[in-house]
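Before a colleague's protein record goes any further, I have to sign it off. What it holds is a sequence and that sequence's fold in token form. My question to you is simply how this chain folds and whether the tokens agree. Thanks in advance; the entry in question is below:
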Amino acid sequence: MPAQKFEKKLDSLISVEFKEKDGPGLVFLVSKNGKAIYEKAIGKANLELNVDLKNENVFQIASMTKQFTAVAILILEEQGKLNVNETVSKYIPDYPNGDKITIHHLLTHTSGIKDFTKIKALKDISQKEMTPEMMVDFFKNEKVDFLPGEKFEYNNSGYVLLGYIIELVSKESYENFLKKNIFDKAGMKNTFYATDRQIVKNRAYGYHKKESGYVNKTVISYSIPFSSGALMSTSADLLKWQNALTQNKLLKKENLEKAFRKNHLNNGEEFSYGYGWHLKDIKGIPTREHGGHLFGFKSMAVYIPSKDIYAVTLSNCDCNSPTEITKKIAEIMLKNYSN
């Protein structure tokens, strides 16, 4: 498929799915062999100032943060500072049942720990500045949902614990560890631990859609999602991230591969989550995927390793879900490059 025809196909797919141009919107980036071959932005970055979205805009990426947390853990393992089979109690001695829960359980959402997003009291702390230790204390004494390794159930608490362990082991903040070991090495100059106070150049504002129209996003303290969902980035920086992984700039190949292996429950049943990525497929071709959702923002990225195809979509309204369209874009790319 010639580039022009291919662009037309993606343009028409996007225009059918997202017709509104005056509301918040989305940015799209598609790459092949590490190079962006399609970029598009539709909608507004700021409704009050009537500013159009552009691909340079910085978005909350929400749970896509989990990829960075998982890789940070593997970097510490490569440095010989921890092992994913070690238990939580090695690092947090008073953690309930911590001698049965491993770092591997946290990475794979099989720990059984109560997800803090399901705790009613969350609204009482949602705007407080919490330390990682305070966040762990918030959920650690909740009744567990199941025993470690019994089930796969998506869990934000596990990834908050991982961020706390990163700080304890590295003796620096999660934010600094990621900047030094990931963002700087990958050349990601527009990726940050989220803040509402500091000036972030090209920041896209987040929105909700109500019956009466759009409203500004609910304000929360980013210390709540922490290492499970507090990063912000651009589509171009996320491509740099993907390329840094592909080119083994951050980890040796054999160590990074752990993130992309399917795992097994105690009963031997396989489930399709690695460390920070869902391991799925499009028409039988393996993919690595993850999305995110945080007040006012949604994100989704699909990577097809065998073709080095990457598709990422970022939205500044939680009314626009990028999940299905990103998969459709990846499918069109796959068709285009399957010959």
